[in-house]
Structure formats: structure tokens, C-alpha cells
Specification:
single chain; alpha/beta; Rossmann fold; 6-stranded mixed β-sheet
Length: 394
């Protein structure tokens, strides 16, 4: 009951932000949130599902303490959102002096908050006004400037080293530091997509009164949303993470328990449903690109079953390395039939859907992870709430 009440308060805060600061309110509404009993008051975490997913963790006790402090409550939420849009959790692993990086990241984000919204007990750049640091710069600028200054002035370096660490950043050097580069790419692409959707909802005019550094940073992230370099690696990672394990008899490996043959070994196979959009908006060059990727997945050892679908499933077959002579469909578009078929009949480990994205929102609730592979002409706009999108590149 307590968590339900806190959730209602958080929803109310989101609505207030939407009314007063639309960008931050809409951005917050698109982020999964989880209430926790331990840890820092607010911090970023990663939930491991079909793909790594960012979530904002909020300590219930800390939220209750801020109940009567609306400005601080909104400021704390914006503080964490600013860390997200600047990518601080995903870049922390590059810096050796973690305490200094913590400090300068807080400098970066707090410059964009009015004094009434700045979280208490966090150092501000004004404390070092004598260093004539430029305002509204990225974390790398402040880190390099302060690192050089600390080397030149040992006493001041010791003073900064005595600053307490920000517990909200602790997870940057634990859970986030363990991510592979491809997982960082996935999370970064998800942030870019969320920023794009938020700006499309509120309009770029909403940002015009903001400091130019933040405004241009957000617009650049929005425009670069399709610039993910390793989309093929994401596709292979997605397939590799979803598999079925079975035992297989083998005469090559004696039984470890009995020392006799045949022994047993584990065999992992990926049972993948490939949904192929064959609606009228898909061009011949798209099919060629789609089947190139399908063939690569097949060569990696995945068991691929293909559904050709426009508004309904037109053809289905097991892919065995041979391109079909033709595809069937070329009507309208609906994403629901393949997902329904997977739920009720095929039960795959994962679903890969090749499409241009031009179809109504998916209504069928998928029981299995979905990766949407979008063609090169897709503008980057994506409204589906299920699954993970990735954009093909030449």
C-alpha cells in the first residue's frame, strides 16, 4: 500500500513536470522506475531482460522525505535525467579518478537547475570560481581542467580528494562498468530514441529558451538516433542471448561420471521466428538486405523459421540457406499475426521482425523477446512499446 501511494505521488510529479517543464515530464514518463528499500536516494540501474534496459531506482524513504519539498523533488528527478541525457553513467568507465568524475558530472547537470531545485550536499562549480572555468561545458572539459590543476597544486588536490563520493553514482562503477561495448551501444541507442520521441511530442520550440549547450546536445542526439554503428552486432547478440539448451549423446566425450561411452554434452540452439514484412511499402532492395542478414544468422547456427506477412501470414517455411524464388504479400501491414502465431503455435526463443515500421501499433502481447530490424529508409521514428528496435545501415 505504501508503494502504491508513493507511485501515485511520483505520477503526480510527472504530470506537474509535463505541465511546467514538458520535456522533462515526458522524458520521465518514458523511463521504467522501481522503488527500492536500500541504496542511494535516486540512482540508475540496469534490468537484464531480452536486452539491457535502464531503470530509475528511487528509495521509498528518501521520496517520503521530499514529499513537502516539491522543488527539490523535481530537481532531484531532473538531476538524474540530466545525467542520463549527457550519458554520464555510460562513460564513467573511461575515467580513472572516479571521485573527480563524480564531482564534475554533478557540476555539469546542476548548472541547468535553478538554485531551488539543486540537490543538497552536492558540490557546485561556484566553489571554484577562482579557476575561471567556462560554464555549460561537458564533463570531459572540467575533468581535464581540474586534473591538471590538482597536479599543479597538491594541497588543493588533497582537498578535492576529501570530498565525499556521491552514492547515487556508485552503480556507474559497478553494474555499468561490467557492460560490454555492444551493450553500451544498445543502451545509448535507447536513450537517443527516447530523446527523439520526447522532442517530437513537445516540439523543438520548447527547448529554445534553454542554454545552447544543452539544447544543441539534445537535438544532436535526436538527429543521430540512427547512427548506431554496430547494429549487426546487436542482431547477433540478441540471437545469442536467447537459446534452448539440450543434452546430446556423443561418442567423442566419455561420461565424466562413469568413464564410458557414449557421454553427454550440452548443445545450445536458437529457435528463432523470423517475421518478414511483405507489405507494399517494402522494396526489392529491402528484401535483398533482409535476406542477407537472415542468411548470416542461419550460418551462425540458428534455427530459423520464416513467416512472410502483410496483413496476414502469406507463407511460412524453415530457412535452409536458399533464397525463395518470390515472396508473397504486398498488401497492407499488420504486426499482430506473426506475434499471435508465435504465442499460440511456434513458441520460439526469440522473434526477429524485418520491416520498414509502417504499420499500426502492435496489439498482441508477445510472450517472447522481439527485435525489430528496420530498413534504411525508416526515418528513425518508432512508436512500438514492445521489443527493441535497431536500424539497418549500409
Amino acid at each position: 500500500m505504501v508503494k502504491n501511494a508513493i507511485q501515485q505521488q511520483l505520477d503526480h510529479s510527472s504530470i506537474q513536470l509535463m505541465l511546467n517543464e514538458p520535456f522533462w515530464g515526458h522524458l520521465l514518463s518514458g523511463i521504467p522506475k522501481r522503488f527500492v528499500e536500500e541504496g542511494a536516494s535516486f540512482y540508475w540501474s540496469i534490468s537484464q531482460g531480452e536486452m539491457p534496459l535502464l531503470e530509475l531506482c528511487i528509495k521509498a524513504e528518501a521520496w517520503n522525505d521530499l514529499t513537502k519539498e516539491k522543488a527539490l523533488k523535481h530537481g532531484q528527478l531532473k538531476h538524474e535525467l540530466l545525467h542520463l541525457v549527457w550519458g554520464h553513467p555510460l562513460m564513467a568507465h573511461r575515467y580513472t579518478d572516479t571521485k573527480l568524475f563524480d564531482i564534475v558530472c554533478d557540476w555539469v547537470v546542476n548548472q541547468y537547475l535553478p538554485p531551488s531545485q539543486r540537490p543538497v550536499s552536492i558540490h557546485s562549480i561556484e566553489e571554484f570560481s577562482s579557476k575561471k572555468l567556462l560554464p555549460f561545458q561537458p564533463a570531459a572539459y572540467y575533468y581535464q581542467a581540474m586534473e591538471q590543476w590538482m597536479q599543479e597544486d597538491n594541497e588543493q588536490g588533497k582537498s578535492i580528494a576529501s570530498f565525499p563520493s556521491n552514492p547515487s553514482h556508485k552503480n556507474w562503477y559497478q553494474q555499468f562498468a561490467q557492460l560490454s561495448q555492444i551493450e553500451r551501444d544498445i543502451l545509448s541507442a535507447g536513450i537517443d530514441q527516447l530523446i527523439q520521441q520526447t522532442i517530437e511530442r513537445v516540439g523543438e520550440a520548447t527547448l529554445m529558451h534553454w542554454p545552447s549547450a544543452l539544447r544543441l546536445h539534445l537535438i544532436n542526439r535526436k538527429n543521430d538516433q540512427r547512427s548506431l554503428q554496430n547494429w549487426r552486432r546487436i542482431l547477433r547478440l540478441f540471437i545469442g542471448r536467447h537459446h534452448t539448451t539440450r543434452l546430446k549423446h556423443t561418442i567423442r566425450r566419455p561420461s565424466k561420471r562413469y568413464g564410458t561411452s557414449p557421454g553427454l554434452r550440452l548443445q545450445q540452439r536458437q529457435k528463432v521466428l523470423v517475421a518478414l514484412d511483405t507489405s507494399g511499402s517494402i522494396q526489392e532492395s529491402d528484401f535483398q538486405a533482409f535476406f542477407r542478414e537472415i542468411h548470416h544468422l542461419w550460418k551462425l547456427g540458428a534455427d530459423l523459421y520464416i513467416l512472410e506477412c502483410d496483413t496476414q501470414i502469406r507463407k511460412q517455411y524453415t530457412y535452409q540457406g536458399q533464397l525463395p524464388a518470390f515472396v508473397m504479400g504486398r498488401g497492407g501491414s499488420s504486426f499482430d499475426p506473426p506475434i499471435r502465431w508465435a504465442n499460440e503455435r511456434y513458441h520460439p526463443d526469440a522473434i526477429v521482425y524485418f520491416t520498414d515500421g509502417q504499420a499500426p501499433n502492435l496489439q498482441e502481447k508477445s510472450r517472447y523477446p522481439i527485435l525489430w530490424v528496420l530498413n534504411q529508409r525508416n526515418s528513425g521514428s518508432w512508436e512500438q512499446t514492445q521489443g527493441t528496435p535497431v536500424w539497418m545501415k549500409k
